[in-house]
Amino acid sequence: MTPANSEATRRKLHDEARWIFHHALRASSIPAAFDRRLRFEDQSLFHSSVAGGDEVCIPLAHYDRIHAVALGKAALPMLETLRARLPGALASGVCCAPSLPSERNIAVDYYAGGHPLPNRDSFASACAALQLLRGTSARDFVFFLISGGGSAMFELPLDPRISLDETRILYQALVGSGATIAEINTVRKHFSAVKGGRLAAAAPQAARFSLLVSDVAPRYLDALASGPTLPDSSTVAECREIIHRYRLAERFPPDVRAFFDDPNLPETPALTGAAAETLLSSDDLIGAAREMALALGYEVIMDTSCDDWDYGDASRYLLDRFYQLRREHPRLCLLSGGEVTVRLGQEHGAGGRNQQFALACALELGGHDGAAVPTQPIVVLSAGSDGIDGNSDAAGAIADTTTVVRGQALGIDPASALARFDAYPLFTALDDTLVTGPTDNNLRDLRILLTT
To answer: What per-residue confidence (pLDDT) applies to 1?
Structure first.
């Protein structure tokens, strides 16, 4: 392949990777998911059973009041979609979303929760929801609309003496620890007054139904937003083991450390009647990406086995798998969902786990540390479905076999950027970031590897 043809192919692969990612975002819409999974008819709600059998009917007309508590990055579209389909009006509601809507429903209290660290509205929304739920009876029906990001956005310490500032330090320690999201949320569940089933437990008599837009692996569904309405499978002992294994206690404020050391730290509550329906998950995002890749003529392989792996291990694994597969499939698309982990150093720059993963791939593709440089163009896209990657304004980035040399030509050392967790300036200089803005959704990350 001549240099001119190679450059044209590289650019085409960039374009097609972007098309696949953006199609996956558009196809994973919340209104479409509602209509696939739920049906409102004759004052009743019909949804599929847990076993995937016959529809379950919930006669909403049997209840005097219907309430909604919405939290997470998809809170606003979930609430508005529900309201548009409900046969009657909401009696009351609490909505904690990334931002406040321009138009508000008079029955709903709206809050703009913080992410990745809680803010004052995170605390205020949790207090408002608990107050609403504690006033319900057997004549009330509560919809819980739960989506990713809800752990930080909707929070209240179980110990009322712990301040917002102390809670933010706890969150900073957890996010930068290198722990998996399930492990992080195990700690959060035992810290919080609204996680690990405690939100639902505040309305013990009311009928409750949770609708989920999931950013966690299916086997860890109770980790979504730290499981505010689902039975919790974790224990205090597991929480303390995680704190010990990642040496978190030394990073906690004294009051937080004392809270977790309390020998009487309670287990999360046992819940009954925790009906739930998953509207969207990472599987829907990957499925939509597969659909577009097939339409573009790629042989598509899906591999989610590196979910929750360290970003470096995941990059090496997926590239090795890709090299093996392309021997049989010259025009290949390898799709991977889920999230990778990053253990931040004391000092770090701008970026997030997706840009860090993409840069690790770029170094491998560019021959760093003696790796062979592929003769055919290869493109790697990694981005978050929520439109946010770490502390940057990008959703992620695209790397290829020329990223390293193009970065060096601009006076940027890619290896140094990786070591400093500072991938964003490099990809921005190369015009290889993906900037979508917040998507009002969160189905984990999508990684796309292409060659032709």
So the answer is: 56
